[in-house]
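Reopening this ticket.

The earlier resolution said the output was attached, but the attachment link was broken on my side. Pasting everything inline this time so it's all in one place.
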Amino acid sequence: MTHPSAAALLTVDEAREIAEQNPHVRYELHYGELVEMTEPKYNHKLLQDRLAKLLKDRASRFGNVLVEYGFRGTPEYDSRSADVALLSEKRHKEALELDEVFGAPELIIEIISPSNRAGEMDDKEAFCLAHGCQSFWLINPVRRTVKVTDSTRHVQWYKEGDSISLAPFSAESITLDEISPLSSNPVLPYRCPDQKGTTKS
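Inline output:
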């Protein structure tokens, strides 16, 4: 992915000024570049709420769970959000004082949607894991699979019938059957293996 030159970078404060002038447009700031975002559709939001409830039920002792969790990946040139995220209690208290979350939340869950650009989720996964995220989940609602990548870049794929451990945030787990019924949107442009396996990049 190419990024804008240093001279063209927008700061978070500059991006927020633009957003205030365009209140009906959702923006994120990626690497100093303003990106217009689409509004999540109904099934996407339902799945976000379901995941947030599961996390609150099983990992709330670790910290705070939110949908559309905004955070500043880097202090000046990046501000984006996660579909669902879990932030440690320590960092949650710091965020309450600063009114900002600096760095990626420890657990981030993203749901693939038809509006995602090619390579967008791979880039977001790499960025978040480089800036504080310990576990990045990528849910494909059509193929009914979940890709989990940890901070060592170890990848594990899960399919229906499997359970995903919430370690190190909780001793409990979430099954894909609990995440279901997943939405049945048109097939999304994201490849995944037919069965669970491990890879390292």
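Reporter confirms the inline version is readable. The helical segments are 12-21, 42-59, 89-98, 120-130, 176-179. The chain has five helices and eleven strands.
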